[in-house]
Amino acid sequence: MPRYWSEVVHRLTPYVPGEQPQHPNLVKLNTNENPWPPSPKVLEAIAAATDDRLRLYPDPDSTRLKQALADYFGLKVENVFVGNGSDEVLAHAFQALLKHDAPLLFPDISYSFYPVYCNLFEIDYRIVPLRDDFSLVLADFDQPNGGIIFPNPNAPTGRAVSRADIEALLQRNPDSVVVVDEAYVDFGAESAVPMIARYDNLLVVQTFSKSRSLAGLRLGYALGAPELIEALVRVKDSFNSYPIDRLAEAAGIASIGDEPYFQDVRDRVMRERERVTQALTGLGFEVLPSKANFVFTRPPRPAEVVMQALRERGIIVRHFKAPRIRNWLRITIGAPHENDALLTALEEIVSEAG
Amino acid sequence: MPRYWSEVVHRLTPYVPGEQPQHPNLVKLNTNENPWPPSPKVLEAIAAATDDRLRLYPDPDSTRLKQALADYFGLKVENVFVGNGSDEVLAHAFQALLKHDAPLLFPDISYSFYPVYCNLFEIDYRIVPLRDDFSLVLADFDQPNGGIIFPNPNAPTGRAVSRADIEALLQRNPDSVVVVDEAYVDFGAESAVPMIARYDNLLVVQTFSKSRSLAGLRLGYALGAPELIEALVRVKDSFNSYPIDRLAEAAGIASIGDEPYFQDVRDRVMRERERVTQALTGLGFEVLPSKANFVFTRPPRPAEVVMQALRERGIIVRHFKAPRIRNWLRITIGAPHENDALLTALEEIVSEAG
């Protein structure tokens, strides 16, 4: 046992992200990146900020970026927190708002980073199973808790819950913070953001990584009542004064400013998702109804076999070994030619079995 | 008392960074930024990475950047950890390596973020006073401890300790991790890095913000034995999988690759520091011997008055209200014309008192 480690380090089981192979010719459908690039205005804004001013610290409060987000969502700066990717925002939320005497609740099949944060910050938690059809039923969270968190749409299932269901949950849990992790919300689900003005216990977390095609830049944010945001700020200012660099702040502001591009990319992803869903169904795959930029699907052959067969063809998808979902694959919606390659390969793989 | 906050949030007294005024005509000598810009090769590397690949996640392990640092220092990748600024690296080190039953030791006059990390992670600490001349005497740390951390050179004093003194400390504390925070080491102090191969309990933390003129990009790193680095990796992978964005990684690699530029900028800063030190001394200021890119100086008039008088002239320096140092100012070494403006202003301010 390494003698220099703090006690908490021994206990950790770190999160394992999807692999990032460096091979350039792979069709990479394993980490839910957007197949379309960021807005040209984002690249221009980065270029304009790439100069001698990089010798200077960024604004520690990222005020201009927070103002841009506040204006976009019809909120105030005091409703906005920004971080180095939504994973960092979530980490601060776990420590600042979700650690209480009663256990935190989250779904059994969900973002697998949640239990990792709980281990890091010594947060007691209880998992709430999804139903057999992988639906997330918020009424199942009616039990004593110190906080609730779930992704909407859920990952890796892609299934969404309605705003009305979230509102009912907020009303039933006035003493707990409810974190809605909306990493994928822009691909067709109902955002909880319009309820922020009415519910002091609602924190919504979003990211620039998916719908805004900026996974490479690390920008996430939280929206909520000022009291919740202040807790995040206090933890952030006790951890790292300057989490957002100058280029990321400039990029984020430009992305928020290019609404037509954002809408166009969302639409393209959703159209491709419908096409892939229909084609997969035609090949005998079960496909859950997805509101995300991926589909969760059960192949007619063992999922691990299909994953390996795709890999041999240079196509990478994500497989999880958790018992309830080991017969399923999570496949990111790619560009049209990538989805074509996927579907052609799957047609071959399925027919091989016959 | 805000009801949704985790208990730890109530206890926090966040770090307050030096202000980052947005006014463009200020002479900003308050946050130890480098007056010279980053290497042109850094700006080229960022430009080359500013393209459609920003839609993709960065390498979660920043392997190329870690390899560049390992090669530069004659170490292995397993000896290198990188983070979103050295503040993040320090935060992880506090949680992963410095939290033990015995108290952490650090100087009373030092980087004021250390007690903030202790509050965040609930680490017991004991402060070790500097001597009356603000020297850091490592023999004063000979007491039971769960870890030791100090900056070398120290901040805000600028005073350095020798490698031999650090080695003696390492030998006297084989059961504790000793963190040497070398944010300013490139401006003339002796680095502890050559001792990493011989001492498993040594962690050295450095940054791209000061000597490499990249405060705006947020890049820091730690060097140490693989066991120490693994502890940091485990905490990082339980907090944020992708802390280093694509542009920062490219910039860091390019910076490490331009040694002549780095050496030239260091030399310029050190030459200006000697010039400023002599001129201040001539004006009746006491100046501590500095190995950093700032000087710590006691003006012949009350420090707060001098700070305000400088401010009225558009020159910002840093004043700390802590009792032992409230008669002192920390002044960053600027570009030659900025230092000229500082010295001219101080000459006026000092003569006004007569």
Describe, in short, the structure shown.
With 354 residues, chain A is α/β, with parallel strands linked by helices.
> Which structural class do the helices and strands of chain A define?
alpha/beta
The run of helices and strands of chain A is: HEHHEHEHEEHEEEHHHEEHEEH
Compute the number of strand runs of chain A. Answer: 12
Broad CATH class of the largest domain in chain A:
Alpha Beta
Characterize the overall form of chain A: globular
Distance between the termini of chain A: 51 Å
Mean pLDDT of chain A: 96
The biggest beta sheet of chain A reads: 7 strands, mixed
Oligomer: homodimer
User: Largest sheet of chain A, order of strands side by side?
Assistant: 2-8-7-6-5-3-4
**Spans where pLDDT lies below 50 across 5 or more residues of chain A:** none
Radius of gyration of chain A: 21 Å
Number of helices of chain A: 11
Whole-number tally of structural domains of chain A: 2
Largest interface: A-B, 88 and 88 residues
Q: State the helicity of chain A in percent bands.
A: 25-40%
List the helices and strands and how they pair.
2 copies of one chain form a homodimer.
Chain A: H1 7-11, E1 27-29, H2 40-49, H3 63-73, E2 80-83, H4 86-97, E3 104-107, H5 114-121, E4 125-128, E5 147-151, H6 163-172, E6 178-181, E7 202-207, E8 220-224, H7 226-236, H8 246-257, H9 259-282, E9 286-287, E10 294-298, H10 303-312, E11 315-317, E12 329-332, H11 336-352
Parallel strand pairs in A: 1-11, 3-4, 3-5, 5-6, 6-7
Antiparallel strand pairs in A: 2-8, 7-8, 9-10, 10-12
Modified residues (N6-(pyridoxal phosphate)lysine) (chains A, B): 210
Subunit structure (chains A, B): Homodimer.
Enzyme class (chains A, B): transferase
